[in-house]
Amino acid sequence: MPKMKTHKGTKRRIRVTASGKVRYKKSFAGHLMSGKTGNRVRRARKPSFISGAVAKRIRRALGE
Question: Domain range spanning residue 13?
């Protein structure tokens, strides 16, 4: 059976931490910040984590 290929788009956007958590950067935080509230901008700066079945699928796409 052939090897699993890494999903390159996922690889560029998402990282798996040493403890196995799936971490990603929130969207809508690149530019045009003046129209967004301070709370929203502050929240977007912090990384987000994915858990559950979706995280399992992402780990599989990354070849973990």
Answer: 8-61
pLDDT per residue rounded down to tens, the chain (64 residues): 898 999 999 999 999 999 999 999 999 999 999 999 999 999 999 999 999 999 999 999 998 8
Q: Which residues contact 1 (CB under 8 A, 6 or more apart)?
A: none
Q: What is the distance of C-alpha 24 from the center of its chain?
A: 2
| CA distance linking residue 47 with residue 62, whole number of Å | 18
Residue 55 lies in a domain: yes
Cβ neighbourhood burial of 22 (10 Å; 0-12, 13-18, 19+) = buried
**How many domains does one find in the chain?**
1
Helices (H) and strands (E) in the chain, counts: 3, 3
